[in-house]
């Protein structure tokens, strides 16, 4: 199936000389939820702005639902809804007026029934006559989403959609995102909350220093790069690791109360049997044990750290 968004060789260098994106290739599948992760300044917002036609790339091409975002701007932009980080709304307008106006900006015919349905879905119907300036931050965020969906786009960008909102609203928005995907909308979100990507995304892309470091299915990524740790609560604390455990992927906690053994979840031979045998031979007793699988956050931090170390190595050699 043809991707709904295709970016090829996209770079962006601003007038002052700062390069925000470096030769980015990215394809986003129709109907998926795609999470774009990266630290502050990684290039997430610049990439979104280019795809949405807000910023022109220095080089490269972007197609949105088959339309070039520069040569066929109006058709491409009509396919896209964008919820930016900033809460920029017409504060003196009513909710109904600003959402209806946004629909008209894209040349869509008036459809009061659709606007009503949209506001009800976003729990905004009872606020339809309220001025936006009188709404809470969470409600203003909902209005931004309503504006982005007012022209019935096929693609929805959510740039840090739950930044600064409470846990309940965040949960409501997760439910709304799943509902939109079920209706056929492709959703791309950037987030600092790793649990959002872990909860919602089908695929994950990691961007750092303007480069896309990795794109993969969430589950495949965690299977490829995830690891587990076996934590043993010792019957008696230790000052240091015994020689009998030398060469094993095990470390002693700072308080000397636990042994932490790391193993690859993909490996047929985890080494746990040998680890436990060595403990028994050394008369090391433990009172409890539990395992923990690495999270998407662990993987993300590791990827960013590895990319940084590789970049510093290249710079030192140049």
TrEMBL record:
Membrane spanning residue stretches: none
Residues covered by the ABC transporter domain: 5-234
Keywords: ATP-binding, Nucleotide-binding, Transport
PANTHER family the UniProt entry points to: ABC TRANSPORTER ATP-BINDING PROTEIN
Family matches, as CDD domains: ABC_DR_subfamily_A
Gene3D superfamilies, per the entry: P-loop containing nucleotide triphosphate hydrolases (3.40.50.300)
Protein name from the UniProt record: ABC-2 type transport system ATP-binding protein
Pfam families: ABC_tran (PF00005)
GO molecular function, one term: ATP binding
